[in-house]
Input
Amino acid sequence: ETGVTQSPTHLIKTRGQQVTLRCSSQSGHNTVSWYQQALGQGPQFIFQYYREEENGRGNFPPRFSGLQFPNYSSELNVNALELDDSALYLCASSRGQGNTEAFFGQGTRLTVV
Amino acid sequence: QKEVEQDPGPLSVPEGAIVSLNCTYSNSAFQYFMWYRQYSRKGPELLMYTYSSGNKEDGRFTAQVDKSSKYISLFIRDSQPSDSATYLCAMTLTGYSTLTFGKGTMLLVSP
Output
C-alpha cells in the first residue's frame, strides 16, 4: 500500500462541465505530480507541485489547473470538459523534487459523455 | 517518432518462464530508468529504478540499461500468474525532471 489516496475513484461528467479531483500524498512526501492515462497509453505528465508551487507543466491547456495545500494534498481541476478528457487521472507523490521514487495512487476514472 | 517505444503485447508465457520486457528511447539525455507494474484498474506500482547504464537485481526482477543502444530491459525469472499485469517503462532526464512513460506491455502468465 503506497499511502497515496485519490478521490473519487470513478466519475461521470457531461461535456462542458467542470471537475475537481483530489489526492492525498504519502506521509513525508511534499511533491505531487498529476498524470493523464488514456486507454491503452502510458501516463502523460500534466503538472507537478512542490511546496504549494507549480514546479513544471506538460503539454496540457490552461483549462487544466491545480493546487497544492499546506498539508501537501492536491487538487486537479479541469474546466470545459471535452470527450477526449475521458481517462484515468493519476496522482504521484515523492520526497523532495525527485521523481525516481514516485508512488502512484489508484487513480480516478473520469468519463465525459 | 515517440520518445519511448514499448511493444504493447500481449505477451503470453507459461508459469515459470523467464520474461523479457523491453523499451527503446530516442533521447540520449535520459539518465534514470524505471519500471512500473500496473494491474487492471489500479495505479502504477514502482518495481525498481536504475541510474545510467548497468544492471540492477531485486528478487526475481532484473533491470538492464544499455545507454549506447538506447535500450532498457526488465527480466522476470520464474514468472507467476500474479505477475500478469501491464509493465510500464519510464525515464527521466535528471532525478528531478518529469517522467516520460512508454505505452506499457501487457503480460499474461498462464498456470
